Protein backbone atom coordinates (compact mmCIF):
# COMPACT_ATOMS: atom_id res chain seq x y z
CA UNK A 1 0.00 0.00 0.00
CA UNK A 2 1.18 3.50 -0.87
CA UNK A 3 0.00 6.39 1.28
CA UNK A 4 -0.30 9.74 -0.49
CA UNK A 5 -0.82 12.52 2.10
CA UNK A 6 -2.97 15.37 0.85
CA UNK A 7 -1.21 18.72 1.32
CA UNK A 8 -4.64 20.36 1.57
CA UNK A 9 -4.51 19.55 5.30
CA UNK A 10 -0.86 20.60 5.75
CA UNK A 11 0.45 23.89 7.10
CA UNK A 12 0.42 26.12 4.00
CA UNK A 13 2.73 28.65 5.64
CA UNK A 14 5.45 26.01 6.00
CA UNK A 15 5.21 23.90 2.87
CA UNK A 16 8.95 23.33 2.58
CA UNK A 17 9.24 21.89 6.09
CA UNK A 18 6.05 19.86 5.61
CA UNK A 19 7.48 18.30 2.42
CA UNK A 20 10.80 17.57 4.15
CA UNK A 21 8.95 16.03 7.10
CA UNK A 22 7.06 13.70 4.75
CA UNK A 23 10.30 12.52 3.15
CA UNK A 24 11.85 11.99 6.57
CA UNK A 25 8.80 9.94 7.58
CA UNK A 26 9.39 7.55 4.67
CA UNK A 27 6.60 8.77 2.40
CA UNK A 28 7.24 8.56 -1.35
CA UNK A 29 4.14 10.26 -2.72
CA UNK A 30 2.40 13.53 -1.94
CA UNK A 31 -1.12 14.42 -3.12
CA UNK A 32 -1.62 17.96 -4.44
CA UNK A 33 -5.23 19.19 -4.75
CA UNK A 34 -5.74 21.83 -7.43
CA UNK A 35 -9.16 23.51 -7.24
CA UNK A 36 -10.55 26.27 -9.47
CA UNK A 37 -13.65 27.49 -7.65
CA UNK A 38 -15.72 26.40 -10.67
CA UNK A 39 -15.69 22.61 -10.87
CA UNK A 40 -15.52 22.55 -7.08
CA UNK A 41 -16.55 25.26 -4.60
CA UNK A 42 -13.03 25.99 -3.35
CA UNK A 43 -9.80 27.49 -4.70
CA UNK A 44 -6.31 26.25 -3.85
CA UNK A 45 -3.15 26.67 -5.93
CA UNK A 46 -1.75 26.05 -9.40
CA UNK A 47 1.47 25.47 -11.38
CA UNK A 48 3.60 28.29 -9.84
CA UNK A 49 3.20 26.87 -6.33
CA UNK A 50 3.86 23.33 -7.58
CA UNK A 51 7.01 24.56 -9.31
CA UNK A 52 8.18 26.14 -6.06
CA UNK A 53 7.48 22.90 -4.18
CA UNK A 54 9.29 20.89 -6.87
CA UNK A 55 12.47 22.86 -6.18
CA UNK A 56 12.34 21.69 -2.54
CA UNK A 57 11.23 18.07 -2.85
CA UNK A 58 11.91 14.79 -4.61
CA UNK A 59 8.57 13.25 -3.63
CA UNK A 60 6.33 11.82 -6.37
CA UNK A 61 3.90 14.67 -7.12
CA UNK A 62 0.41 13.18 -7.40
CA UNK A 63 -1.55 16.13 -8.90
CA UNK A 64 -5.33 15.93 -8.61
CA UNK A 65 -6.87 18.56 -10.90
CA UNK A 66 -10.37 19.59 -9.84
CA UNK A 67 -10.66 22.20 -12.58
CA UNK A 68 -12.82 22.78 -15.64
CA UNK A 69 -11.23 22.24 -19.06
CA UNK A 70 -8.01 20.70 -17.68
CA UNK A 71 -6.72 20.12 -21.22
CA UNK A 72 -5.78 23.82 -21.36
CA UNK A 73 -3.29 23.40 -18.51
CA UNK A 74 -1.70 19.95 -18.92
CA UNK A 75 1.61 21.28 -20.25
CA UNK A 76 1.78 23.89 -17.44
CA UNK A 77 1.39 21.23 -14.76
CA UNK A 78 3.91 18.94 -16.45
CA UNK A 79 6.42 21.81 -16.72
CA UNK A 80 5.85 22.65 -13.05
CA UNK A 81 6.97 19.14 -12.10
CA UNK A 82 3.85 16.97 -11.82
CA UNK A 83 4.76 13.27 -11.97
CA UNK A 84 1.15 12.22 -12.36
CA UNK A 85 -1.71 14.32 -13.71
CA UNK A 86 -5.20 13.31 -12.70
CA UNK A 87 -8.20 14.87 -14.46
CA UNK A 88 -11.87 14.39 -13.67
CA UNK A 89 -13.92 12.51 -16.27
CA UNK A 90 -16.73 15.02 -15.60
CA UNK A 91 -14.56 17.92 -16.81
CA UNK A 92 -13.51 16.52 -20.21
CA UNK A 93 -15.65 16.32 -23.35
CA UNK A 94 -12.81 14.42 -25.01
CA UNK A 95 -11.30 12.41 -22.20
CA UNK A 96 -9.24 10.07 -24.39
CA UNK A 97 -7.55 13.06 -26.01
CA UNK A 98 -6.70 14.66 -22.65
CA UNK A 99 -5.21 11.38 -21.38
CA UNK A 100 -3.07 11.10 -24.52
CA UNK A 101 -2.01 14.72 -24.00
CA UNK A 102 -0.88 13.89 -20.44
CA UNK A 103 1.09 10.83 -21.61
CA UNK A 104 2.82 12.93 -24.29
CA UNK A 105 4.28 15.21 -21.60
CA UNK A 106 5.84 12.19 -19.86
CA UNK A 107 3.53 12.46 -16.83
CA UNK A 108 1.37 9.48 -15.81
CA UNK A 109 -2.25 9.77 -17.04
CA UNK A 110 -4.96 9.30 -14.41
CA UNK A 111 -8.73 9.81 -14.39
CA UNK A 112 -10.81 10.63 -11.31
CA UNK A 113 -14.51 9.86 -10.93
CA UNK A 114 -16.89 11.68 -8.60
CA UNK A 115 -18.81 9.38 -6.26
CA UNK A 116 -21.91 9.23 -8.50
CA UNK A 117 -20.07 8.86 -11.84
CA UNK A 118 -20.38 5.33 -13.23
CA UNK A 119 -17.26 3.23 -13.87
CA UNK A 120 -18.65 2.59 -17.32
CA UNK A 121 -17.46 6.07 -18.36
CA UNK A 122 -13.79 4.96 -18.25
CA UNK A 123 -14.18 1.29 -19.21
CA UNK A 124 -12.48 1.64 -22.60
CA UNK A 125 -9.69 3.84 -21.27
CA UNK A 126 -8.46 1.47 -18.54
CA UNK A 127 -5.54 0.00 -20.54
CA UNK A 128 -4.07 3.47 -21.18
CA UNK A 129 -4.45 4.72 -17.60
CA UNK A 130 -1.71 4.52 -14.99
CA UNK A 131 -4.33 4.78 -12.26
CA UNK A 132 -8.02 5.48 -11.62
CA UNK A 133 -9.01 7.71 -8.70
CA UNK A 134 -12.28 6.86 -7.00
CA UNK A 135 -13.54 9.92 -5.12
CA UNK A 136 -15.17 8.84 -1.89
CA UNK A 137 -16.43 12.33 -0.99
CA UNK A 138 -17.79 15.09 -3.22
CA UNK A 139 -14.56 16.96 -4.02
CA UNK A 140 -13.82 20.42 -2.70
CA UNK A 141 -12.86 20.09 0.94
CA UNK A 142 -10.81 17.98 3.32
CA UNK A 143 -12.30 16.41 6.43
CA UNK A 144 -15.53 15.03 4.93
CA UNK A 145 -17.10 11.68 5.68
CA UNK A 146 -16.45 8.61 3.50
CA UNK A 147 -19.44 7.72 1.27
CA UNK A 148 -20.02 3.98 1.92
CA UNK A 149 -21.08 2.86 -1.60
CA UNK A 150 -17.59 3.78 -2.84
CA UNK A 151 -16.27 0.55 -1.33
CA UNK A 152 -18.42 -1.45 -3.80
CA UNK A 153 -17.20 0.81 -6.57
CA UNK A 154 -13.59 -0.14 -5.75
CA UNK A 155 -14.46 -3.85 -5.93
CA UNK A 156 -16.19 -3.40 -9.28
CA UNK A 157 -13.25 -1.41 -10.65
CA UNK A 158 -10.80 -4.10 -9.49
CA UNK A 159 -12.85 -6.66 -11.45
CA UNK A 160 -12.91 -4.43 -14.55
CA UNK A 161 -9.11 -4.01 -14.44
CA UNK A 162 -8.64 -7.77 -14.10
CA UNK A 163 -11.04 -8.35 -16.98
CA UNK A 164 -9.10 -5.86 -19.13
CA UNK A 165 -5.82 -7.67 -18.18
CA UNK A 166 -4.42 -4.24 -17.29
CA UNK A 167 -2.08 -3.18 -14.49
CA UNK A 168 -3.90 0.08 -13.76
CA UNK A 169 -3.65 1.16 -10.12
CA UNK A 170 -6.60 2.17 -7.93
CA UNK A 171 -6.50 5.22 -5.68
CA UNK A 172 -9.16 6.36 -3.24
CA UNK A 173 -9.54 9.92 -1.97
CA UNK A 174 -11.83 11.36 0.67
CA UNK A 175 -12.66 10.35 4.22
CA UNK A 176 -9.89 7.75 4.46
CA UNK A 177 -9.03 6.95 8.10
CA UNK A 178 -7.26 4.26 10.12
CA UNK A 179 -10.73 2.71 10.58
CA UNK A 180 -11.48 2.09 6.90
CA UNK A 181 -7.97 1.78 5.40
CA UNK A 182 -7.75 -2.02 5.80
CA UNK A 183 -11.15 -2.63 4.23
CA UNK A 184 -10.23 -0.40 1.29
CA UNK A 185 -6.91 -2.08 0.55
CA UNK A 186 -8.52 -5.50 0.89
CA UNK A 187 -11.10 -4.40 -1.69
CA UNK A 188 -8.33 -3.55 -4.15
CA UNK A 189 -7.07 -0.04 -3.41
CA UNK A 190 -3.33 0.43 -4.12
CA UNK A 191 -2.95 4.05 -3.08
CA UNK A 192 -4.72 5.71 -0.16
CA UNK A 193 -4.97 9.49 -0.06
CA UNK A 194 -5.28 10.93 3.42
CA UNK A 195 -5.53 14.57 4.40
CA UNK A 196 -7.10 15.31 7.78
CA UNK A 197 -6.51 11.80 9.20
CA UNK A 198 -2.81 12.13 8.41
CA UNK A 199 -1.73 15.74 9.01
CA UNK A 200 -3.93 16.07 12.09
CA UNK A 201 -1.94 13.35 13.90
CA UNK A 202 1.80 14.00 14.04
CA UNK A 203 4.48 12.74 14.25
CA UNK A 204 4.24 11.75 10.58
CA UNK A 205 6.53 8.72 10.78
CA UNK A 206 4.30 7.15 13.44
CA UNK A 207 1.13 8.02 11.54
CA UNK A 208 2.57 6.59 8.32
CA UNK A 209 3.51 3.40 10.18
CA UNK A 210 0.03 3.21 11.74
CA UNK A 211 -1.55 3.25 8.25
CA UNK A 212 0.91 0.61 7.03
CA UNK A 213 0.24 -1.57 10.07
CA UNK A 214 -3.55 -1.65 9.71
CA UNK A 215 -3.21 -2.54 6.01
CA UNK A 216 -0.89 -5.53 6.57
C1 LIG B 1 -11.05 16.57 -1.57
C2 LIG B 1 -9.62 16.34 -1.95
C3 LIG B 1 -8.94 15.40 -1.05
C4 LIG B 1 -8.88 15.85 0.40
C5 LIG B 1 -8.94 14.63 1.25
O1 LIG B 1 -11.70 17.26 -2.57
O2 LIG B 1 -9.54 15.81 -3.26
O3 LIG B 1 -7.65 15.03 -1.52
O4 LIG B 1 -7.74 16.59 0.71
O5 LIG B 1 -9.02 15.02 2.58
P1 LIG B 1 -9.53 14.03 3.71
O6 LIG B 1 -8.58 12.87 3.74
O7 LIG B 1 -9.48 14.87 4.93
O8 LIG B 1 -10.93 13.59 3.34
ZN1 LIG C 1 -7.59 14.92 -3.89
Q: Biggest sheet: strands side by side, in what order?
A: 1-8-7-6-5-4-3-2
Q: CATH first level: which class?
A: Alpha Beta
Query: Could you estimate the helical fraction of the residues in percent?
Result: 25-40%
Structural class: alpha/beta
Radius of gyration based on Cα positions: 16 Å
Task: Give the strand tally.
Answer: 8
Quaternary structure type: single chain
Count the domains. 1
Descriptive account of the structure:
- It is a single chain.
- The chain is of the alpha/beta class and 216 residues long.
- The protein has a single domain (2-214), classed as TIM Barrel (Alpha-Beta Barrel).
- The protein contains eight helices and eight strands; from the N terminus they run E-H-E-H-E-H-E-H-E-E-H-E-H-E-H-H.
- The chain has helices at 15-24, 47-54, 74-80, 95-105, 150-163, 181-187, 196-199, 204-214, and strands at 2-5, 29-35, 60-66, 84-88, 108-113, 131-135, 169-173, 191-194.
- The chain has an eight-stranded parallel β-sheet.
- Helix 2 (47-54) runs parallel beside helix 3 (74-80) and helix 3 (74-80) runs parallel beside helix 4 (95-105).
- The longest helix is centred in the C-terminal third of the chain and has 14 residues, at 150-163.
- It is globular and about 40 Å long.
- The model has no long low-confidence stretch (mean pLDDT 98).
- The structure holds D-xylitol-5-phosphate and zinc ion.
- D-xylitol-5-phosphate binds at residues 6, 8-9, 31, 33, 64, 137, 139-144, 173-176, 193-197.
Amino acid sequence: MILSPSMLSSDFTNMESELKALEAAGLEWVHLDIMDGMFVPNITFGPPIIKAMRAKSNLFFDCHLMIKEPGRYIQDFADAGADLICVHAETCDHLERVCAQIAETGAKPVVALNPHTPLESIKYLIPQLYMVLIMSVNPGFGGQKFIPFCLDKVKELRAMITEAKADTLIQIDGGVTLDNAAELTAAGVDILVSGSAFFGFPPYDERHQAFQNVCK
